[in-house]
Write a structure and sequence with these properties.
The protein is mainly beta. Helix content is 2%, strand content 39%. The protein has 1 helix and 25 strands. A hairpin with a 5-residue loop joins strand 17 and strand 18.
Amino acid sequence: SVTRRIRGCAWPSRRRAAGAIISVFTLAALAACSSPVTRSPTESTPSPPAPTHSATPMPTPTATRVSTLAGCAAAVTRTALHVVHHFSVSPDDLAVDTSGRLWVSAREANQLISLNPDGSGIATTTVTGGPEGVAVAASGVYIAQQNVNAIAEATPQRRVVVTLPNRTANAGIDGISIGATNQTLLIPDSPVGTLLELSLIGTPSTRVIATHLGRPVAATVDASGTIFVASESSPGLVMVTAAGTVTRVGGFNDLDEVVAYAGLLYVTDLSRHDVVAVNPRTGASVPLALNLPAPQGLAVTANGVLEIVDATTDTLYSLPACGVS
């Protein structure tokens, strides 16, 4: 089971992510490197595909105006979702790059898996330290190593970027995401309840953006630059202003992921086992996908497709965002 709850001293271990930018050439670098990160034979295609086949160009976005909850389709159950891929290991978090290629972590298997939007072109590498959150920037693919409370670059370099102190009994960092400038990482420091920003330029340095966030496990930035953070405990979902002011959004208490697209937020609600669309201004929400046992990963493509990872069924699903046909 992927649902481990230890309320009180030790926090649960949960899976995440969010999406950003990487060149298709990083796959060539990934195949060529000879560091301790090695490819696993567990997936159907044990070695990375050639660069010319590793990514599918992203179509022109179909949602060009701000979406509203009124534009959301009726909620569907898990059995009605489009299945992109069944994994041979339990997946956690995911991110999407500018080519549309998906990057999926598998914490218990210590794997980072990449695949095309149609589920083809599987490439698997081993990443130690309990890989959870995934974020893709122009400079590389970054992984949150929950077991050691660190951020590592998986490709094109293989290195530890920063290790954060964890003097608690709580599980380490969960989800990570790219900041507004593509030159920073947003790191919900899950054990201590803060939101950090890590510079990807020059010497790694962090700054605290917000505190008292419960157990924050995911963050996203909308088109205006406003940050939203999802937590596995109260306050659930919050908006963080540039000045660090924290305002609760809606009445959530057990979230795992949050992404922003076309004026709406999308969250995975672990207590309800749903994927939910949220109006960030009012906190109103509607469910989109129902009865997912463990929706641990969520990302959105440039053309408005929600990519959903369920860690119990070991499956990657997809669903159009609100207002997207």
